[in-house]
Amino acid sequence: MHNPDPLLQHLIEQQWPTAQAGGHFFALPGLSGNSIHVQTEQGELLARRAPLQPIPFVDRQREFRVLHKMRDAPLGPVPVRWHQPWLLQSWLGGTVLTPEQFNQQQVAVLALLQRLHQQPLTGYRLRLTPLLQRYWQLCQQRHWRWQQRLQRLLKQGEPKPLRLAPVHMDIHAGNLIATPHGLRLIDWEYAADGDVALELAALCAVDGEHESDWIAGYAQQNQLDEKVLTRQMRRWQPWLQLLMASWYQLRAEQSQDPTLQQLARSSWQDL
């Protein structure tokens, strides 16, 4: 594809002054979209555009700053430049994990997760209460059961964190790259400071078949009581279920994508 945005070209030329306008640009698949693989003679980059329609909590400037704090870990791509609406970061060469590989490499995934959770706090706190309220405001189609569930959770209040740490909040096979230097995480748009039990609950929501293995492995690796960790995850699960259903609902309305519409319907049925 041709570069669709002169602002992106300007950002690339700031990074590489000798870069020519004739670079190659490849749109990447993904539920959020707006990511472009940039290839020039000077090297490769990933360009992530701010969403064209609002998605609660997604902020490329925060994403840039979080990645900048993590740059020496190493955990994911290195941030290069940010200027509204584009975030430029290093291109991670490697292979995206399959769901089977994700489970097979559980020890390596847990080691990566442990390294992330041992990093200093980012200064951006993830709070689900205002996040859920914002989804309710933005969605056009609302059901009284949704309102009922939301009000019940708000009345309960969010669980107090078992352990506060930087969290990625979107860990699944498609966001893990096997590189020559080991596993790396991509798509940091929801990363912030949150409860490690919430992170693990989100991971198990996409790989529930192996939940007990993930819990046992994480608890052992991080010197946590397995039962305490499990109880805390259970406290977060209603919040997480409503968050996922709300995300699918909003993105389905914004994109009119049939896959997202089906995921939204399934999520509400699960609730």
Describe what this molecule looks like in 3D.
The protein is α+β, with helices and mostly antiparallel strands. 47% of the residues lie in helices and 17% in strands. It has a five-stranded antiparallel sheet, with helices on both faces. A three-stranded antiparallel sheet has the order 6-8-9, with helices on one face. The model has no long low-confidence stretch (mean pLDDT 92).
Shape: globular
Gyration radius from CA atoms, angstroms: 19 Å
Main sheet properties: 5 strands, antiparallel
The helix/strand order is: HEEEHEEEHHHHEEEEHHHH
Distance between the termini: 41 Å
* Mean pLDDT over the residues: 92
Question: Total number of helical segments?
Answer: 10
Secondary structure class reads: alpha+beta
Number of strands: 10
What is the strand arrangement across the widest sheet?
1-2-3-5-4
Q: Helical residue percent?
A: 40-55%
Uncertain segments are none
Which band does the percent of strand residues land in? Answer: 15-25%
Briefly summarize what is shown:
The protein is an alpha+beta fold and 271 residues long. It has helices at 6-15, 60-69, 99-104, 106-117, 128-138, 144-156, 196-206, 211-221, 226-255, 258-270; strands spanning 24-27, 35-40, 43-49, 79-83, 86-90, 95-96, 164-167, 176-179, 182-185, 192-195. The chain contains ten helices and ten strands.
Question: Which features does this protein show?
Answer:
271 residues; 5-stranded antiparallel β-sheet; 3-stranded antiparallel β-sheet
